[in-house]
Amino acid sequence: MTQAENRTQIRKSLEIVIPISGLIYFDILSLSTLAIMNFPTSDLVLIPFVVVFALCAYGIARRSRISYIISAVLSATLFALFATTIVEGFGAVTIPYGFFAAVTSVPILLAVIIYSVLGLRRAFTVKAGTTVTWINHDGVVHTITSKSSNLFDSGNIPTGGSFTYTFTQPGTHNYYCTVHPWMTGTIVVTSG
């Protein structure tokens, strides 16, 4: 395995491990907070989040795209709903558990959001003979260039422009933008 392939494998592993760990951590933190506070009615709104986060953790382990989407959206929603509580927790240094919950929940929720979004980047699978079209909806120029061979190279695609390529041979085709090399993708071509 090359260094580039090793880095890709590690990145893909993080796109699974970090959201799952964050969701499970948040479930444990929420349940323990509720238990310590004797289940106050005002905080029972956390129960649906706990259930859905547990289901999302399971879905992410199975690489379910909808689980990544739900975990990112619910993490952002939870962050917005409890922003004032979190800010108050930062000032509660005399209440160790409240301070600990506030200090740890912010980076955990942000990590779940970021890595859930990153987890959405997955291989696109098509059958041999399929024509794929990329459209540049961004405000800057991009390219679609195959990494391992000279199979395809779009040249510069301006805003609103597109590039079309017909994949005839089965295989895995990694591509990137030569202008922004961190922007990558994968097309998996299966036999007809």
Shape: elongated
Order of helices and strands: HHHHHEEEEEE
Number of domains: 2
Classify the helix fraction into a percent range: 40-55%
- Tally of contiguous helical segments: 5
**Unreliable parts:** none
Compute the number of strand runs.
Answer: 6
Largest sheet: 4 strands, mixed
Enumerate the strands of the largest sheet in spatial order, edge to edge or round the barrel: 1-6-5-3
Task: Give me the Rg, rounded.
Answer: 21 Å
Averaged pLDDT: 82
Strand content: 15-25%
Name the structural class: alpha+beta
Task: Determine the N-to-C terminus distance.
Answer: 29 Å
Features:
6 strands; 52% helix; single chain; four-stranded mixed beta sheet; Immunoglobulin-like; 5 helices; two-stranded antiparallel sheet; 16% strand; alpha+beta
Task: Record the SSE blueprint.
Elements: H1 3-36, H2 46-61, H3 65-81, H4 83-90, H5 96-119, E1 124-127, E2 130-135, E3 145-146, E4 162-167, E5 171-176, E6 184-190
Parallel strand pairs: 1-6
Antiparallel strand pairs: 2-4, 3-5, 5-6
